[in-house]
Design goal:
The protein is of the alpha+beta class. The chain contains 29 helices and 25 strands. The N and C termini lie far apart (about 100 Å).
């Protein structure tokens, strides 16, 4: 049977030492009288035997504190009621005169003992005659990782089965052993509490030895490391030597013996100042600074590289360590490897140049190494779905390569959609790329699909990507990352499967540096870069291109021109071609129109091509040429800008003018009626 009563401490000093002794005495009497086990439970949950002086005193209950009196046994109800009444007594009337002084002394002693228990670095666990815990200090809490309220009043074996308290109490002999607790390893020393020949409990001290064991483990690790280091030093192929601060050699490894050509016994104890006073080790000991990569050529033809570092202990030099490597064989192998790599690179380039390209690339004229290398990259890129960025000057054939790349890819049966980002005004480019909903803006009379939707399943070619405005760059970045977008004025997200091929003649790296092109977009586009060489770097292709354009244009124009003279061909080969292949096609078209016979001659070529310089209108600005009207220069500049840039907007950017001015002046010179070549 179990019963509980509540009591309030009335005594002004609380349950101090004398009162605690009276309570314990009373509880002992009641336990015998009623056959009950009495316990006290504080408000914070600590529960201790009412018959244990240390345990009751450890509750440290003050005046006004509430506690529960618990009892088990036949007379539990009577025992709890009587002890609760006893606890609520005011014991002040008993403490008059000398007894009050005794109370003061007991309080001081109790306080001192409590502070000692609390501040002890060692864990302290005290048990009573029934092995119940009556003292459990903070260090014990840390070691057991158990709060005191959870330990007090419990048999110690419940949470510490390995405890020696029971055996020590029985045998009355101290016991010391190593124990592994949750908080670390300890040395547990358990001593019996003997009073009048009887064992009243035990005191266990727990000395934390975790740090000591860690140090022991570290010492073992250091010894193992030393053995391993010694093994490494003895087996490495680098020569290693150690000298003390006096320059005396204290260690050399076998490799050093082999490199030096002397046995260890001949070297240990010798001074480097005597062996090589101007050597690297002597220099390091004098200066206290390391020397790396010191090169020495021995009389036997060996080449040695030495790294020597000073050894400092507490800021003072106490020696040096030298690592010497024989690089003679390395030098020989490096030279041989360099030759092999050079030959392999040459053979790889030749293989790339001679390898037949797929039929999709047949329309690209040229056999030069630079072009074949670019097309080889394009051929490999065709099998992938990754983004391609085609780089090259205006007129080098970027669009032609983009179309060939698409035709050689698994998407060849799907759409190829081209967008000239420079030719479309910035306000309209978003609608052009992503489409718009009906009523999205003035003039949007019906829904329109954008170029990305039209290219779904195929490829989209974003020409002149470097001319795109920053705001559109951010929107394009999302499509590259997520493959989704919304139409202008729409809310529905559209997902597309599109292979993106971009092209530009701009220096994107410089634009990124100056903030005109987004760096994140640059890296999204520049997955597979293809660099197309300018025509001036592939002059061997000019005859083949000239013949191709001659046959093509003669047929289109209905001319019976069938060849080109060697002199005319020589003029074409020595010209710089700032407009690249597009300019070459333009010159051949002019020559076909002007040719009087079946062959194009040098006379049919523009004077600036024959002379190998700039077009004649620009040469007229030189001092030796007669001046022309300003309009002639303006027309020539506009014509060249349009030929190279391919659109009014791009030409305006190149010339530093606005779009309207370039368009108006082009119409003035009837340039708008000319068919502008598509940029590639």
């Amino acid at each position: 049977m179990k019963h509980a009563e509540t009591a309030v401490i009335r005594h002004s000093r609380g349950l101090h030492a004398r009162v605690a002794a009276l309570v314990v005495q009373k509880a002992t009497e009641l336990a015998r009288l009623y056959g009950a086990e009495l316990e006290l439970k504080a408000a914070d949950g600590r529960q201790v035997p009412a018959t244990s002086m240390l345990a009751v005193l450890g509750l440290d209950l003050r005046q006004g504190a509430r506690l529960s009196v618990l009892a088990r046994g036949p007379g539990a109800e009577a025992a709890t009621a009587e002890l609760a009444r006893f606890l609520e007594r005011d014991f002040s009337s008993d403490a008059q005169g000398p007894l009050s002084q005794v109370d003061d002394l007991l309080d001081e002693t109790t306080l001192t003992a409590g502070q000692i228990f609390t501040s002890m670095a060692a864990g302290l666990v005290v048990t009573d005659a029934k092995d119940r815990v009556v003292v459990f200090n903070p260090a014990a809490e840390r070691l057991f990782r158990l709060p005191a309220p959870a330990a007090l009043g419990r048999p110690i074996g419940e949470f510490w089965p390995e405890a020696a308290a029971a055996s020590v109490r029985t045998n009355r002999e101290p016991a010391t052993r190593r124990q592994a607790l949750p908080g670390g390893a300890v040395i547990a020393t358990c001593t019996p509490i003997l009073l009048e020949g009887e064992t009243r409990g035990t005191v266990t001290l727990l000395e934390d030895i975790s740090h000591v064991e860690e140090l022991a483990g570290e010492l073992r690790a250091v010894k193992e490391l030393k053995e391993r280091l010694q093994l490494v030093l003895d087996t490495v192929h680098d020569g290693i030597s150690v000298v003390d601060k006096e320059g005396t050699i204290t260690y050399v490894n076998p490799a050093y013996e082999e490199i030096a050509g002397r046995r260890r016994a001949e070297l240990i104890g010798k001074s480097v100042f005597a062996l090589s006073p101007q050597g690297v080790r002597a220099r390091v000991l004098r200066s206290g600074e390391k020397v790396l990569g010191a090169l020495t050529r021995k009389a036997n033809g060996r080449t040695l590289v030495a790294n020597v570092s000073p050894i400092y202990v507490e800021g003072e030099i106490c020696g040096a360590v030298s690592v010497v490597k024989d690089v003679s064989e390395v030098e020989r192998l490096a030279e041989h490897l360099h030759k092999v790599l050079a030959r392999a690179e040459y053979l790889e380039q030749e293989l790339t140049r001679t390898q037949e390209l797929p039929a999709a690339f047949a329309g690209i004229i040229g056999r030069s190494g630079a072009l074949r290398e670019a097309l080889a990259v394009a051929q490999k890129a065709a099998a992938s779905t990754s983004t391609v960025l085609i780089r090259g000057e205006s007129g080098t054939g970027k669009e032609l390569v983009a179309r060939a790349l698409h035709a050689a890819s698994p998407r060849s049966g799907r759409p190829f959609v081209r967008v000239n980002c420079a030719a479309i005004p910035a306000p309209l480019l978003e609608s052009e790329l992503f489409g718009h909903e009906k009523g999205a803006f003035t003039g949007a009379w019906q829904r329109r699909h954008g170029r990305f939707e039209l290219a779904d399943g195929g490829s989209i070619f974003l020409d002149e990507i470097g001319d795109m405005e920053p705001a559109m760059q951010a929107k394009l970045l999302r499509v590259l990352q997520e493959r989704e977008f919304e139409r202008v004025g729409g809310e529905t997200t559209i997902r597309v499967d599109v292979r993106i091929i971009a092209a530009t003649n701009r220096n994107l790296e410089e634009m990124v540096r100056t903030g005109r092109f987004r760096e994140d977009l640059y890296w999204r586009l520049n997955v597979i870069p293809i660099f197309l060489p300018p025509l001036r770097e592939r002059r061997e292709d000019i005859p083949r291109l000239a013949e191709y354009f001659l046959a093509k244009l003669a047929g289109r124009l209905g001319k019976k021109v069938q060849g080109i003279t060697a002199q005319a061909l020589a003029c074409l080969e020595q010209y710089a071609w700032p407009g690249n292949v597009r300019e070459l096609e333009n010159v051949i078209e002019r020559a076909v129109n002007l040719a009087e016979g079946a062959t194009v001659t040098a006379a049919d070529l523009p004077a600036y091509v024959r002379e190998g310089g700039a077009p004649g209108v620009f040469a007229a600005a030189a001092q030796e040429a007669p001046l022309l009207p300003f309009a002639a220069y303006e027309k020539a500049i506009l014509a060249r800008a349009l030929a190279e840039c391919g659109s009014f907007r791009a030409a305006a950017r190149a010339l530093g003018l606005d779009h309207k001015t370039v368009a108006a002046r082009a119409r003035k010179y009837r340039l708008t009626e000319q068919k502008l070549p598509a940029s590639g």
